[in-house]
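DM from R.C. (forwarded with permission)

"hey, sorry to bug you on a friday — could you get me a structure for this? deadline for the figure draft is monday and I only need the backbone to look sensible"
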Amino acid sequence: MVESSTYEYVPHPHTVRKLSHQDEPVKVADQLPKGSFGARFNAWLAVKVTTGVGTMWCAYAFALLALVSLPSAIRSHSPVILVSWISQTFLQLVLLSVIIVGQNVLAAAQDKRSEATYEDADAVLHEAVEIQEHLKQQDATLNILIERLTALEARIS
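My reply, with the result:
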């Protein structure tokens, strides 16, 4: 006699959380401090300064500001002062903003990729659940066929 058995699907706890929509994509705002007023203020101020400095307009303004002292550096006829102006004044001021702009562009692209990955994973999870349901229906059908075959064998023997 053939015994029929049905596979019992036990979803992973992460799958249960995901299917109940308790698990959403991580947002930047979720990472900000929620503790003391000081921590929240410091994070707020840092975001505001970074947002302001991280623009190409700020880079242009810094470049103009740095150019104000260029004639003086040139008139000094000192290579040390000229190199100092280039490295300490121009590059630091201008590249600061340009690097932040680049980081913002890269971060936006990464956020878009992360969101797409999250949506893909969510879709795969739902497909896997559908496959489990399909397999459950197949198990039920196979169990019926096994029972019929067992009954048929009993009548023949």
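R.C.: lifesaver. The two ends are 12 Å apart (CA to CA).
me: no worries. The chain has six helices and no strands.
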